[in-house]
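re: ur question from earlier - yeah i can do the single chain one, its not a big deal. heres the input i used so u can compare w yours
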Amino acid sequence: MQVNLLALGGGTETTMTAQTRTALLQAQCIVGAARLIERLPAECTPNRAAATKPQKILEALRAANCDRAAVVYSGDTGFYSGCRNLVPLLEEQGIAYTVFPGISSVQLMAAALHRPWQDWTLVSAHGVQCDAVAAVLQGKPTFFLTGGSLGVPQLCKQLTEAGLGDLTVTVGENLSYPDASVRTGSAAEMAKQDFGPLCVLLTEAMQQPPRRSPGWPDTWFERGKVPMTKRFVRAAAIAALGIQPEDVLWDVGAGTGSVSVELAAAAQKGSVYAVECEPSALELIRNNRQKFHTWNLHTVEGYAPQVLENLPAPDAIFVGGSKGEMTSILSAALAKNPQARICVSCIALETLEAVLAFCREHNLEPQVMQLAASQAKSMGRLHLMMAQNPVFLVTVHCDD
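and the output i got, formated as tokens:
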């Protein structure tokens, strides 16, 4: 048996390549999604079977018992296509196959907008979980395939709830069909509209946080009278935590949100939860989030450890303030993830002892570092070094 894996493009004959059409007409049996095999050219064989899962497709091909078979896919076989899951099965069974590419929905959208697409971020939300905010945080126009539970309104709702309701988005509906339409508006507007099942979404590039090493200048942040983790302590803490792009992070006792903002900038595909109980601090966190466009930063209002129960398991946690609940906070983090990377900032010796006692009780190996930074301040013609409060950083699992 020779199997041809055929991309039908936009699902209409006008977007089908001549090569694909020839292979279709030569096929003795055709397998694919029901909506595709129902709309094939009239000259194609009536020997057709509806199947989408790779194993079911393979069973249909064997049941057809023909020499030349075709499996059809929408769009392009190389762009989030089920073709990639069928190929290993065919190879495992020793069945010869050829892959025919086609015109993808991203090409149709770019053509409709008269724009190139080589600089777009390409994401699939078709039948899979998708974090739209993390995708657009990469700072490029972002193209989404939609489908299943994540249609255009759901994706735009994610963006709106993160604070990106004003972001300009464009929806391509039924591209390549006679009733095709292209609509542009804000994410907030599109979240309230209805769309058919055959839609794609393009978001414009959004502003990004600064691209630089940890330890942003203190003057960058709105501060008010709320305590803030200073620049060089912040840089050391973030470096110790070893942030990965997809990490889930907690900042407990977030204060102004300076640590939270830098964590969010480092974990652009992840999420940061800034836990704070003081209303004035919460306002500052939101202001700094807005200022630095760190839309993956989520404020959590309330007292730890109670509010930590509903948060996702952290890959890493920074504790800047505990209100005397250090043991409970660390216990809550390790209950969610026993291997969570931990960094605690201690100004008082009593706080340091509480962290070390917790580590002894739980057989953890802490590393303790003292930071004592001084900054020159002009006094007439002279410059005197003015010391900041010394800080102890206690880290656990950070060198694993």
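The first strand starts at residue 2 and ends at 7. not sure if urs matches, ping me
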